What does this fold into?
Amino acid sequence: MTFASDNWAGAAPEILEALSKANEGAVSAYGTDDHTKRVEARFSEIFERDCAVYFVATGGAANGLALSVLSPPYGMIFCHEESHVQMDECAGPEFLTGGAKLIPVAGAGGKMTADGFVKALKGFPHRPPHGAPPAVLSLTQATECGTLYSADELKALCVAAHEGGMTVHMDGARFANAAAASGASPAELTWKTGVDVLCFGGTKNGCIAAEAVVFFDLAMAKDFEFRRKRAGHLWSKMRFITAQFDAYLTDGLWLKLAAHANAMAKRLSGGLAAIDGVDISYPTEINEVFACFPGDTAEKMRADGEPFYPWITPGDPAGGRMNRLIASFRTTEQDVDEFLARVKQSL
Amino acid sequence: MTFASDNWAGAAPEILEALSKANEGAVSAYGTDDHTKRVEARFSEIFERDCAVYFVATGGAANGLALSVLSPPYGMIFCHEESHVQMDECAGPEFLTGGAKLIPVAGAGGKMTADGFVKALKGFPHRPPHGAPPAVLSLTQATECGTLYSADELKALCVAAHEGGMTVHMDGARFANAAAASGASPAELTWKTGVDVLCFGGTKNGCIAAEAVVFFDLAMAKDFEFRRKRAGHLWSKMRFITAQFDAYLTDGLWLKLAAHANAMAKRLSGGLAAIDGVDISYPTEINEVFACFPGDTAEKMRADGEPFYPWITPGDPAGGRMNRLIASFRTTEQDVDEFLARVKQSL
Amino acid sequence: MTFASDNWAGAAPEILEALSKANEGAVSAYGTDDHTKRVEARFSEIFERDCAVYFVATGGAANGLALSVLSPPYGMIFCHEESHVQMDECAGPEFLTGGAKLIPVAGAGGKMTADGFVKALKGFPHRPPHGAPPAVLSLTQATECGTLYSADELKALCVAAHEGGMTVHMDGARFANAAAASGASPAELTWKTGVDVLCFGGTKNGCIAAEAVVFFDLAMAKDFEFRRKRAGHLWSKMRFITAQFDAYLTDGLWLKLAAHANAMAKRLSGGLAAIDGVDISYPTEINEVFACFPGDTAEKMRADGEPFYPWITPGDPAGGRMNRLIASFRTTEQDVDEFLARVKQSL
Amino acid sequence: MTFASDNWAGAAPEILEALSKANEGAVSAYGTDDHTKRVEARFSEIFERDCAVYFVATGGAANGLALSVLSPPYGMIFCHEESHVQMDECAGPEFLTGGAKLIPVAGAGGKMTADGFVKALKGFPHRPPHGAPPAVLSLTQATECGTLYSADELKALCVAAHEGGMTVHMDGARFANAAAASGASPAELTWKTGVDVLCFGGTKNGCIAAEAVVFFDLAMAKDFEFRRKRAGHLWSKMRFITAQFDAYLTDGLWLKLAAHANAMAKRLSGGLAAIDGVDISYPTEINEVFACFPGDTAEKMRADGEPFYPWITPGDPAGGRMNRLIASFRTTEQDVDEFLARVKQSL
It folds into this structure.
């Protein structure tokens, strides 16, 4: 098993079994079935609050469609300069919102600070209609750098956003890893700190293709269903997303899978840190390790068939030398140890 | 098993098994894996021509994204006034193309004639930049009314489109049913008659969520991959769409499933036609039956828990009395016979 | 002076003088000046109701931006199949609304009937989110065929639209001609019959580039100012649109110019009707005459340097033989009589 | 005359006279007239190269439409973080391009350096289709901070952009001021240094509403005319933009007006610099002065009816204390001296 991406891992067996089970009988299409309604209700339990929940197949769809109901088509969306919405979705949020403007904000380790956000916001004084109005603060939990916002950090950011008349979107592609690592409840990590909409990811953590857009304020969901449909993101055989979430949320599977991946990353990070010349770039708080290897170690390993990615971003603090390693629910201790051995051989 | 929609049927067992099989090992993400490349190549075999193939999860995505590379954002797309792109995608093609204009064309039984299309086209004389330029002719095979275009009919339409400087898109959500019913080869039904791009559907015919956009002219695919990505339609764990098509295209499964559904619809249609007072609205050429029932029979059946849809469209020839019944790969002879019995009881 | 288009006429002298007068002194930009506020208020007087008024330079901008605040980006806009928004704006409404769907409705002489509209609407049963929701009825007064809706006809259409949960947009590029011809008050032709938003044209009737979007329900204007700005339609030196409207609305100039153009068209139409073999296609109710000439008369005249346009549209009742002739505020009786003489010479 | 904005000045008398002169006779619409063709040809003379020229009424339209033909809808457009396209067009470029992503780049005095641009570009490694492809470098000459790029600075930037497979757009809303100040030829400031498209502004420098989009590579203009039309930016009575440019380009009027405005700003800047406690923030190279006043001087002056704007931007080096003062073709020496006197009184 490689450390290239948690997307390279397949699906957890429980997820596949759920698909087979869900296949029985005729079921009404497009999410109007009872099973889907029940799974939607599960989110309200887990988040301790009435939620409006919409299922889609990809994180890009979840983020872009969520943003499209939070921002007018001419609004400004503030996000970290290394965030997925800014760097990895081929201008998807700009497209799906109908033209909103993303404002990248710098911050160490993939995290914005409340001060940093407020300072960025001040650069855009209120001048309607010349300046696009600030509409959304988009946070990523866990971040693209594998770090975590504490509940207090989130709270400060959300307060600042709400004071500026903005709503708060959370990209939770690795929300499970964040929840497992922090021990905080899903509610504490979201609406209790001020998050308005969460894109709750399943795909990277053992699902096939399953993402849920969770609105904590039902009124805010407004016309999501129309926007999902016209963008081609409404599944006819919705039961096959529903079933994934059914299994994922049963008996805490989502947290178990994430906790395992997190532990494997910790093991990897610890092992790497003990190797002379290897630098761990960011604290390893979830299932991602960012590391600089000495000399041409990384290049040699890639040439030898170890497919992990270099990690170059705006504001790159490592001058192009950083690498990203991701553990998944499938990673074993043996995988980690073999990788560590290969690093040592390649020094 | 109901006759509400082929979307209400689940997935064929072969499809689900393929998913489990595909789950083994680490596989590179986003469709860069070898398995995906091999399945893409299968399309070239089946269509007897080098194809550029892209996988997505829904028919709305396939159609809209295909149209977005065929039409400039200010182009005109001619389609049947009852077509899915016009009636059922919540203005998705307008959105995904960035603003193209759909021009609905009338025609009996869901079919445009070449004459009807040419006459419609003549209503839009060449007046750049005032009139939007005609860019695409979008055909549906089989049609929304469950009818088939013959190869000759298609050829005449494609010739007219190409003479007008347009390309031809085919919505093949039920292409399998068309191929199974006509006996014509996939090539004969597409590029040999002049079709430039086919949206080849799997979902309605036993897949979970699997659609392929097939370009017969490789150059025409241009920037499809960017458009798919930014719209949130690129799966990270692409192997799980690939696997569906792998099974679907193996040993002619796609044609077997479609042929069965077609046969069940024929049985249903024949049975209904023999009931006094029932009118079959369109010839039953694939797996769909359109029928008018006498008096309040349809309403009674729906009240008794038979969930089939009334069928009201622009140019509705039945004054709002038509109903749509769809058989699927899962429909049994017993299902058909029980339904016929229920009709008789409800007269 | 030709009959090719009222756009070929320049500007009325009063309009040009107003520009010079408005040029004095420093004036705050982007429409925040007092002069602009005063002219906006004039619209409230003329329409006998508090209005929200926004100025732009072209009819395409006025229509598209008005529709963009009335329709969600996935809404349906019903319009006549020969209307300007459908035929002449290069898919501008689709673009400016972010992807709304225009539904063309047939009707004799450029006019929809309430029955025709209701019938068209019935073809799109309520099926959220599959069908795009009907959002706007767009009417043109006077129509593209130079005909007029009576206040009663408008009322019936507006009632039907409102009953369907839709708002009513009026393209009034030639509203002045309609008002002058009908003798009805501006209020009677608009909000008193149920029109929600009027695009009040000045350009075709003697202005340089001046169109006003007039909202009769202030709340409906919502975010127009943001949409105008981001589309590049907010003038920095707004006083130069304002000044045009100031002159245009003073001493009834707008109605005088239109009445003259109407009268010249009547004279032309009467003269043509008296020529053997010439058919007047539509009643000449404003400043436009639609006529079929015998044999190759039209072609001969065009070859001899008379630049008038053939008029071919969807549902063309004249088989491609119709021509459009437009009088303007500048047309003289002598222009008309010379044209009639040339027709006779070209028979 | 205030120093709030050059947009507050009206039009030069020559421009208004040209309008009256252009008003004679019938002229074909939408820019198809001979006069327009002749004025388009004038641009080719002035720029010493065959150009494709398109006229619009606002700078926002010129920039957004130019960018829409240079960038795919999912492309990245690099621009200065204080540029007009980023700060002042209400997300217009995002809208008019159909969703392109603007990447703000920092740089002192409103200018990017080639090194700064290359460094920013390196933050976005080639990862199709995940990362949006870099498509356009957008430069502003003169800049929003009233500074100038030298021909060498431009050349270095254009080389870097072209090496990265990008094209170069120049926002020339104050290009006349740049040309007048630098003494360089229009060709030297544009295509000879590598600029592909120039938005040549007239409005801020004495026109009413006149901007020209000038493509130096004819092929690059591609579908501009369709994009202009559908966005509502094609004037029917085009002669009234043409006429403005005719006068503007005759006898060097454009350079004379700009040179005067530049000189007045120099006088103002010099006078301010001599006042104790006043800081000039950026070199005064065109008609804009950026200054910090001591204590509450600026607030007092504004309260006393001097309408100049505070200047707060991302990366604001003055902590919110900067003010912008703009001279225009209409500013007199007396205006400058009176303003200086008022500053002294308000200290």
